[in-house]
Amino acid sequence: MIEPQPAIQPQQSTGAGSANGKKRRFGGTEAQIRSALKFYKVLAYLTGAMLLLLCAELIARYAFGQYLFAGGTDAVTGQPFGLGFADAEPQGVVGGLNLSVAVLIVHGWMYVVYLMSNFRLWSLMRWPFARLIVLALGGVVPFLSFFVEKKFHAEVEAELAANPQAPQRY
């Protein structure tokens, strides 16, 4: 009787992959990983910048009682209001766009997209779950997204360079 054999014979690793001799396996091709890395990098910087704006807005609101407004009418003088800070209580501007609230909303939605980019990169790289948590914290801890992006970008590039055959799936 003939014993069934797999269509592709497993190749012995020469140790060029990871330290334990196993070949590194990615969840996608090199092009997919590089695309996810670029998307993550852009969103890390945008989300980090919006988080810094959010922190400045929260300091202005809670430390000084000021909102950032664009347009509207000054509630005290009745004159048109351009762009600047106005009192939160009592309301300093009537009918203007509250940019403080806009910063909150934009950062919130940008963080959701940032989390999607984190998940995409994490799943393609097949990292442990703890790294996903560190990636996610980059959008809520000021300045952390810049440091985490730099560290993980270098790590992805190093893993791709150390394992040139691993991401070729097709």
Give the topology, please.
Blueprint: H1 30-64, E1 66-70, E2 73-74, E3 83-87, E4 93-94, E5 97-98, H2 99-125, H3 129-137, H4 144-162
Antiparallel strand pairs: 1-3, 1-5, 2-4
Description:
This protein has 170 residues and is mainly alpha-helical. Helices cover 53% and strands 9% of the residues. Helix 1 packs antiparallel against helix 4 and helix 2 runs antiparallel to helix 3.
Provide a concise account of the structure shown.
With 170 residues, this protein is mainly α.
Mean pLDDT rating: 85
> Share of helix among residues?
40-55%
Q: Largest sheet at a glance?
A: 3 strands, antiparallel
The assigned structural class equals mainly alpha
Distance between the termini: 33 Å
- CA radius of gyration is 25 Å
Number of strands: 5
- SSE order in H/E notation? HEEEEEHHH
> Assembly type of the shown chains?
single chain
What strand order characterises the main sheet? Answer: 3-1-5
Low-pLDDT sequence parts: 12-18
- Total of helices: 4
Beta-strand portion reads 5-15%
Give the overall shape: rod-shaped
Overview features:
single chain, 170 residues, mainly alpha, 3-stranded antiparallel β-sheet, two-stranded antiparallel sheet, 53% helix, rod-shaped
